[in-house]
Records
---
Amino acid sequence: MLILLTGLISSALLRLLGPLVIIAALGVPLLFVLYLWQSGLFRDMPGHALVIAATVGAALGVSWVLLTGGVLARAYGIPMAAGFLLQNLFGAGLVVSVGGGILMAVPAVVVRLLKPPTREALDGFVIGTLGALSFTAAATTTRLAPQFVSGLIDDVRPLRLLVESILYGIAVPLTAAATGGVLGILLWFSPGKRAGEHPGAVRATLLFFSGLVAVIYSAIWVIDAARLPKWPQLAMHILMALIALLAVRVCVQLALLHEQPDPYSGEPVLCMHCDRVVPDMAFCPACGASSRASSRSSRSIRRESPPVPEAGKPGTVHGNV
């Protein structure tokens, strides 16, 4: 993220419009794909589910920008996102902003309707976030590419480019990623015994945070329509992104605490987070990390090959990671 931010700032101050548009549109989605690769998700999740989520999200993003392009053009206000303010079209502006937020949930809904083989909450987080980031990447690229080709942002001052590059390269995709993740968690959540006698209360809480999506995107439209100075506007967008990130963090915590855990093997396992040999439990008794915060392939290997004492070294164990 620091490298991404450095690239945005450098490209804006040096007026390198090509790299600026590419980094703003694809920076955060690329980071998320690297996260999937680093976490081993490509081995654990069906490839077609990831492809469907990304494809549906990208197609909806392009279609939404093209569909609303005429309305947006009449309310042109920001050089890097023509007509994003919609200050003169109250009803249409609200529909465009909230409608875009709702469409980000469609990829997760489509994949969920295909009945994926696993129902882990973090799988839903991945699908929802990937679909939302694909939507924003495609929408931002579609929105900015014609302006770049036509030279509409050639005369914009570097400082304004800097503010808007951070807005559309950091704040907007992070907000989308968080809101998509919340909706994905809600769709994939399967309550277990930890939910107690009232699993509906957990679902209701997750549903509440999902409804926060519409509130966040309504607030974003109000911020844009208010035509605030550039720095206060950026600060408010960052605040909305932080609220969305906090919401998804709470939902991850709730889902991991109350969803059905993996069957216990009865053997000790090596915790991937603290490197200690601990009982096979939903949460590590040493560091508190969730066992499902590591990949399914890693969990399977560690359960199939539990740590065993080393010969001649009492109390010392080793095992396969």
Note: The chain is about 65% helix and 5% strand.
---
Amino acid sequence: MTFEERVLARMATGIENSDPHALAMLDTLAPGHARIVGITGPPGAGKSTLVSALAAELRRQGKTVAIIAVDPTSRISGGALLGDRIRMQQHYSDPGIFIRSVATRGASGGLSRATAGLVRLMDCSGRDYVLIETVGVGQDEIDVASLAQVTVVVLVPGMGDDVQAIKAGIMEIASVFVINKADLPGADRLEREIHAERPQVPIVRTVATEAKGIEELLRSLAVAAPIDLHRSRDRKGAEGLPIDHLGIAVKSLEEAIPFYERVGLSVTHRETVPHEKVHVAMLPAGESRIELLEPSESESAIARFLEKRGPGLHHVALRVPDLGNAVARLRAGGARLLNEPRTGAGGHLYVFVHPASTGGVLLELIQESSS
């Protein structure tokens, strides 16, 4: 599907502003075939110049491009500072390149909260490549790796010991390393430092201002394998997302609860959730819970589950630190969500993901408590 540029721009604005109509329309669009490339790295590495050079080479090869340039938020207007638009003026007359600058609006991680939706929109619009340029990022600002199919980490000669300082962050998310400004002294040393830390990751030297190394970089992007971000975080000692609870469908709470009490668990909370048409009993189990679910009406989802499958595991619930960002990323990846975030049993905010998107199990994502 191709979009007229004005329509694309209006939809992008709606997504940035969390307009319900725009978000609903986005959910109806079929996924495209775009190669989604994240460009990240410390300030001053030449990311914008590199993105501009990549776009020019892609157009020379007959490819269409969308550029999502994440800029810092202006303290005066609240909008993007638009530095990337100024640097990429040469592309604005080209209908094969769509450029969107988006403000971080206080979000950390090097992206804005709207970025995932914009990436999905550009993919659905039929672009061949979507280039995501982050703000100048630091050690832990690595959200781009969860959106991009491949992630380019741009470094420059003269960093030297800085590679050691940042190795626990953006160094671990690279599908491809770029040594930009490679005509400067120190390029050889930087390449050795990178290779010592990540010997399996390709390294490409570029001089983006002169378009040197850009064709080689594009060849690397075409074959680069995505990085397993969870594996990278494991090396840092992160524990991943905790299981909040296991939801178990039962025909009767009164009949089911005694079994779990004999196991050694105790009910600490019971309630009825009217909009889900379900009676709930919660039994803490270590840092997680067992959540027993009894239908309160014959037309409820739990009642239909019991009729079709009988009592048993209904869903797995994970706690996430930012439910809004998680939802946006899932949508960008084409996942099927069963509801908008809403309040459930225990007062938590949640969303369900259809089993067709998870490998066969209904998944519930819950906003981690800020307390």
Note: Residues 74-81, 105-110, 228-239 have pLDDT under 50 and may be disordered.
---
Amino acid sequence: MFNLVHLESVVKVDIIVRKNSPYRQTEFARRVAIDLPGFRTWIVSKEDLILSKLAWAGESRSEMQLPDVRKLLATGAEPDYLRRWAALLGIADLLEESLHE
């Protein structure tokens, strides 16, 4: 993982190299194209961002990602997709806690 920073606009982009696991291949296939002034780019889907933040929280035992997860969940997400992958990724407990807070 590394970051790119555009100093004039103070925009930071996190670059994460895709791993070859089934989940990461699915995540990549679900990416979303967005248009920004002057160019088009791809970003991770909301559900996959939620799952990644939960995985980071589970690995690091850090609470820093969980407020972001709760905010993202509050805007709506695909619960069946989240629950299926959370179970396979071993983060179902963190997802359920976040869904019920």
Note: The two ends are 30 Å apart (CA to CA).
---
Amino acid sequence: MDAKISFKQINKLAIPAIIAGIAEPLLSITDTAIVGNLEFNAVEALAAVGIAGSFLSALFWILAQTRSAISAVVSQYLGAKKLDEIASLPAQIIAINVILSIGIYVLTVVFVTAIFKMYNADGLILDYAVSYYKIRAIGLPFTLFTFSVFGVFRGLQNTYYPMLISIIGAVLNVVLDFALVFGIEGLVAPMHIEGAAIASVIAQVVMAILSLILFINKTPFSLKFKFPFNKEIKRLLGLSLNLFVRALALNFALYLANSYATGYGTKYIAAQTIAFQIWMFFAFFMDGYASVGNIVSGRLLGEKNYKKMFLLSKDLVKYTLVISFILGTVCFIFYKPFGTIFTKDVAVLNTFYSIFWIVILMQPINAVAFVYDGVFKGLAKAVTLRNTLIVATFIGFVPTLLIADFFNLKLYAIWIAFTVWMLFRAGILLVLFRKFVN
């Protein structure tokens, strides 16, 4: 048996995972860029997409934690060569996921105005955010279905099919964004912010259909739901529940960031929207290598190969750091053009430029945090991940934000708090992983 997983083997999983991983943030970043360049009320529309997009991301992250749980369980059974023992599991958890997401969609649509008022939104920004959300959230069950299927493929050590689905979805979304937001003369009337939401929903539906086809034809599992529940359903739901709590802590930090930014004024939430969309895009970009930890560590745990797991983590950190430095260098070279992609408003651009350097400099910290986050997901150490996020949020992020806000640092306060947050996440997981493998 080889002492370590080769660079070629890692990239065979990582590169398709990178492409697949950026699909959802690419939907949001495309909406942000298109909406930010509207001919009227562009700043308000940009702010609204930022608020609604932040809440949607929160829902996606909370509900999509079963993707990591599915991947961890499937990969462990793959490593132990016992996939037949969980034959009924994917269909059961996918059904639970879709039913739950439909219920959450209905509940949030009913209370959407109150929800966005909690983000300090009012007036035109509130109207736009509500309108955008009511349409865009229709895609929630379809995205959760797609994410669940991606989790199965990851567990089977296959990132190629998720990549294909993600490419098709991303390209379709970009084309539809231009067509529906700005219109096509003589064919489609301009739909403003609603057009961006419709474009995203159509892309999500198409991705779900493609996921269904590939799941049926390219996995050893069936989508036929049947009782009794699989023996692993309890563990998988337990993993998912702990990851839900983790995601709640994570999204509490994001909620505070957007709420404070909205409270500072329209130009601040617009600038925060741009900065956060770039941060998210880079996060999912680097998450490609981190996902190899998620995909492979479960299999190595099933094989009880801890040495290879340790060597894999070192290589993944090294590769992800290289990516973070490349991304950072590109950002510093094209510092000004990055902002003008999203808006031409001078006040918003100046506010964005004032904090963009913090977003760039924290990328190496993110690299370490994301790698070990992925490894612990693969190991099904959901309690560790839950506790880490709780500590990072309530001992790191929240106190830092409150102190920096007291000194009226505004967006600086938010991004300093994010940096401290990521330092906590990276440091805690690094120490705990070293203890686990030694």
Note: The chain has one domain: 7-437.
